[in-house]
Amino acid sequence: MTALRRILVTGGAGFIGSALVRHLVLEFGAEVLVVDRLTYAGDRRSLSACEGRPGFAFLEADVADLDAMRRAMEEFRPQAVAHLAAESHVDRSIAGAAPFIHTNIVGTFAMLEAARAYRDGLDAGDRDAFRFLHVSTDEVFGSLPEEGAFDEATRYDPRSPYSASKAASDHLARAWFHTYGLPVLVTNCSNNYGPFHFPEKLIPLVLLNALEGKPLPVYGDGGNVRDWLFVEDHVRALVTVLARGVPGATYCIGGRSERRNLQVVEQICDVLDRLRPAARPRRKLITFVPDRPGHDRRYAIDPSRIERELGWHARETFETGLERTVRWYLDNEWWWRPLREQRYAGERLGLPATGTSAARAVA
Ligand code: NAD
Ligand code: DAU
Asked: What's the chain's Rg over C-alpha atoms?
C-alpha cells in the first residue's frame, strides 16, 4: 500500500471488516482504529490477532452517532476511512427492516458528514490525500436473467429491504463526492465467504449444520446463482482501491465464480465427507425449504474494470477457497461454538413479520 498508514475501519469486528483489519495491521503494520457497535454480528475475538499490536485501537460506538464519529476522527486523525459497518443479512431485513435503515442509511450519512467536517480542517496536502471508501454490494443491482453480468454502468434495482438500504447509502456516498468534493470511492462486491463468517449465511450455516448432522436448508429449488469471492481476495481489492482508486469512481469486485446454491451445498458436503468422514454421506441431509420472499435469482459480477485499471485479480478459485474455509472451521471451533450456542443456533430467519409486529419494530 502506498502512503495510507492511518485508517479508520467501521464494522471492523464483522466478517469482512475484521479480515481487512487483520490484513492492514498484520501485513502492513498500519495504524487502525476500529469503530464497531458490536451487534450480534460483531465479535472482538475476530480481532484477537491484532490486540496489543502497536497502532491498533478499538472504539465501541454506533456509526449513526454523529458526535461520536466527529470525535473519533478528530482524535484518531485518519488518512482514510473504510466504511463497512452495516446490517448485512437479507433474511433479517425481511423480518424487520428498522436496524437496516438506522445503520445502513443514517449511519452512512453520519460517517459522510463526520468525514467531511474532519477533512475540511486538514491542510491542503492531507485534504487531497484523504479517502472515504464506501463498501457496498452487488445486490443493489437486482436480479439477473440466465446471461449477463453486473458492471459499473448497471442501473440500480434493489429488491430487499437490505439491498434498498445499501442502494440508498451508495447514493448518499456519491452525492457527498459530487456536492462536497469528499474523495469517495464506492465498491460493489459479490458474495464473500471464508474464515470468521457469522453462521447465519449460507456457507457457514450449511457447514456447521452438516458437521452436527442437522438438516441443510436449501431455499426454493436451489437453482439461485451467487458469484462467490474468497474474503481475503475482497480485502486485497479494497486495499488496492484505497491506494490507487480514482475518487468518485465505482469498482465492481467479484471472483468469476458463479455457482447454483445446490452445487455449493453439495460441494460443502463432499469436502467435509473427505476431511471428516461420517457414517452417511452429508448430501442426505439436504432439505428443500420454502423460498426466501423476493429471492433474487442470479447475481454475477464483471470485474473487468478493477482488473484492467488497478491490476487486481482474485487469487482463489471457489474450490481452493472452499477447502481453506472448511479446514478453518474444523480447526477453529473456539470461534464458532459460542456463537452457535449463545447468539444464533441456525433457526430459519426471514419470514415476514405480521403487520402489527412489523409496526411495533419500527416504533
Ligand atoms: P457483518 O454483518 O459480518 O459485520 C457488520 C459489522 O458492523 C459487525 O461487526 C457489526 O457489529 C457492525 N455494526 C452493525 N451496525 C453497526 C452500527 N450501527 N455502528 C457500528 N457498527 C455496526 O457484515 P460483513 O459481511 O462483514 O459486511 C461488511 C460490509 O460489506 C457491509 O457493508 C456489507 O453490506 C458489505 N458486503 C458484504 C458482502 C458479503 O458477502 N458478506 C458482500 C458485499 C458487500
Ligand atoms: O451479494 C452480496 C451479498 O451476499 C451481501 O451484500 C450480503 O451482505 C450477504 O449476506 C450475501 O447475501 P445473500 O443473501 O446472497 O447471502 P446468504 O448467505 O444469506 O444466501 C446465499 C444464497 O443462499 C441465497 O440465494 C439464499 C440461499 N440460502 C441462504 C440461507 C441462509 C439458502 O438456500 N439457505 C439458507 O439457509
From this structure: 20
